[in-house]
# Entry
Amino acid sequence: MEVTVNSNDVDHALRILKKKMQREGIYKDMKIHRHFEKPSEKKARKRVESLRRARKVHQKRFARDGY
# Structure
């Protein structure tokens, strides 16, 4: 990941870097790997994330197509 600094505006470049990192999911990954996660906890977390994604897709499809 690369961010260019124009005219010594480091604050602006830092903001851009943070947005890119958030879009890539780096913050989420760091939060997950902060401590050891048991395999059963990992499986449960992935199942919840999968259900959340499926529900979101279903809601978008319902709003768009009506079913």
